[in-house]
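A favour between colleagues. Tell me how you read the following sequence-structure pair.

===
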Amino acid sequence: MGAHKRTAAEAARGPLVHEFGLLLKAATHLEQRINAAMRAESGISHVMFEVLIRLCKDPGEQVSQRALAQDLILTSGGVTRLIDRMEEAGLVRRVPSPDDRRVTLVEATAEGEQTFVHAVDVHARIVERYYVAPVTAADRSRLTASLERITTALLDDTGGTEAR
């Protein structure tokens, strides 16, 4: 007898497809909830919030647009348009690098910092409701540790895509 060939339906119901689908679905829904609340209550998108996290972590730090693009997994054009919108809104300003004329640095403005502080409360409320409250502290701790290991494995793998 020949080997059983898996059908498309069997493949779609596979445990890895299901597990990864749950992760993506949860992350996507959480992102949508955070984004909607931030836009309504703080006037910024979640991705703008992520930029402000990076810029506000170390007061006075200026970050290159290239570093922001890498941190946010955006193209250089995508981060340029994002920073354009944030600059127009008065949240950030671009400054030339004192070390390299080819590099543009970005820093948070006082308004950007104030917006960030307000947005942190919105973010915390949504994360508390949909990420913290539904699971035990021990489960969340294991999940966080697992996500850190996954992220490390992805960042450490310089081999690129898995073409087989």
Q: What stands out?
A: The chain has a mean pLDDT of 91. Helices lie at 8-12, 15-42, 46-56, 65-72, 76-88, 110-132, 137-156.
